[in-house]
């Protein structure tokens, strides 16, 4: 028998869920492939079911393929890309470690914040938002700071700039430090060769170039990074993201760690399968072809891009908002009148640019045509 009365203040009487169908051409998430959404609707099994463990193995192998690495410790973190980002910092950073971070956008600053929280001696090198670091600049910084870890953002989501990585890993080996790379907005759409480029730690997300809903985020550690983790003097300060524990769930031991988001892993497996079917090099070429088509169309509308062409991302373009226009109002019109989402600027670029994403399943000429026509109509008003 209930002895207390029920408070019904929060008891909403709702209709079944109904969400507008949008074309997501912002910085993420992107629209998922229909086959990926269908896979999510598969009935769940247990997170230690043999069928699910087999699926985990497939995810690991396919992530090695899209990243072009043979790292044994390659998994999907149960969480969004920010969780995988924090996992890289948490597992190899100990109090007092010198961590050198290249800051040329919003997400470089996020790495600074995270590393500081784990007790790192954080040092930074900076560039204006939209520019990238040259090898000689990185060499000079490594000589000055002698870090244990160098962290760079390969695809800066706030600026649309692509940081070249060729030669950086060799520099890091010369100075005996680990190379940590953010590939959140590049994996699946931008050429990446982690082993060839000697990248030691990388993380990404599922909802951009992989064309999958958010929540299952790629993470990888090289044997060099694993060695540093295993030689820690202190425990990893984040239990949920501790790879010494997670590796036992994803590895041969299959030790329970947490209840995985089963259906999100179904979706990630299907998204990776589609990329393997297409061929990763074909996915890279598709993204480049479609973004060049976008740039041409934007220029025809009289718009200019924020980043120098050589360093623009094929997955995300920052478009300069013409003087006198209300960028937020234009984006709002696109959303409400045309069901198209684009993003606004972050940080130093707030109010100065739109961020247009062509990622994963959305990197198609039809997406570009629809956006350009909508922009043409909105800008003409």
Account of the protein in words:
This protein has 381 residues and is an alpha/beta fold. 39% of the residues lie in helices and 15% in strands. It has helices at 34-40, 50-67, 81-92, 106-117, 135-145, 168-174, 223-230, 243-250, 262-278, 280-300, 327-338, 365-379; strands spanning 23-24, 73-78, 98-103, 121-126, 149-153, 155-156, 161-162, 178-182, 201-203, 216-221, 316-320, 340-341, 343-344, 353-357. A 7-stranded mixed β-sheet has the order 2-10-9-8-5-3-4, sandwiched between helices. Strand 6 and strand 7 (161-162) form a beta hairpin. It is globular. The model has no long low-confidence stretch (mean pLDDT 97).
Task: Fill in the keyword field for this structure.
single chain, 381 residues, alpha/beta, 3-stranded antiparallel sheet
| Element order: H for helix, E for strand | EHHEHEHEHEEEHEEEHHHHEHEEEH
> How far apart, in Å, are the first and last alpha carbons?
65 Å
**Gyration radius from CA atoms, angstroms:** 22 Å
Stretches where pLDDT is under 50 for at least 5 consecutive residues are none
Structural class based on helices, strands and sheet pairing = alpha/beta
Please bin the fraction of helical residues.
25-40%
| Strand order across the largest sheet | 2-10-9-8-5-3-4
**Average pLDDT value?**
97
Question: How many strands?
Answer: 14
Count up the helices.
Answer: 12
Shape descriptor: globular
Beta-strand portion reads 5-15%
Q: Major sheet: size, sense and barrel closure?
A: 7 strands, mixed
């Amino acid at each position: 028998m209930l002895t207390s009365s029920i408070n019904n203040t929060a008891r909403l009487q709702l209709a079944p869920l109904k969400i507008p169908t949008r074309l997501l051409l912002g910085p993420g998430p992107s629209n998922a492939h229909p086959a990926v959404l269908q896979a999510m609707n598969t009935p769940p099994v247990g997170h230690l079911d043999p069928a699910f463990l087999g699926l985990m193995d497939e995810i690991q192998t396919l992530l090695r393929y899209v990243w072009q690495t043979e790292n044994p410790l390659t998994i999907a973190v149960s969480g969004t890309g920010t969780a995988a980002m924090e996992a890289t910092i948490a597992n190899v950073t100990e109090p007092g470690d010198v961590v050198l971070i290249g800051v040329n956008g919003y997400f470089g600053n996020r790495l600074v914040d995270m590393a500081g929280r784990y007790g790192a001696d954080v040092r930074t090198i900076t560039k204006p938002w939209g520019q990238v670091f040259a090898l000689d600049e990185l060499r000079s910084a490594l000589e000055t700071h002698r870090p244990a870890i160098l962290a760079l953002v390969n695809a800066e989501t706030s600026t649309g700039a692509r940081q070249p990585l060729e030669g950086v890993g060799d520099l890091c080996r010369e100075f005996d430090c680990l190379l940590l790379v953010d590939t959140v907005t590049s994996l699946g759409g931008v050429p990446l060769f982690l082993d060839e480029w000697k990248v030691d730690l990388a993380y990404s997300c599922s909802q951009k170039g992989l064309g999958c809903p958010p929540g299952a985020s790629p993470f990888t550690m090289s044997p060099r990074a694993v060695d540093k983790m295993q030689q820690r003097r202190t425990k990893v300060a984040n239990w949920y993201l501790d790879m010494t524990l997670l590796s036992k769930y994803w590895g041969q031991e299959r030790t329970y760690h947490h209840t995985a988001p089963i259906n999100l892993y179904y979706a990630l497996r299907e998204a990776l399968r589609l990329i393997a079917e297409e061929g990763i090099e074909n996915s890279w070429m598709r993204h480049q072809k479609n973004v060049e088509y976008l740039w041409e169309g934007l220029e025809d509308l009289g718009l200019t891009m924020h980043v120098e062409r050589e360093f623009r991302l094929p997955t995300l373009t920052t478009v300069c908002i013409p003087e006198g226009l209300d960028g937020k109002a234009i984006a709002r019109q696109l959303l409400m009148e045309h069901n198209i989402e684009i993003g606004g600027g972050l940080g130093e670029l707030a109010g100065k640019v739109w961020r247009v994403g062509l990622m994963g399943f959305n990197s198609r000429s039809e997406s570009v045509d629809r956006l350009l026509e909508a922009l043409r109509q909105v800008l003409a008003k």
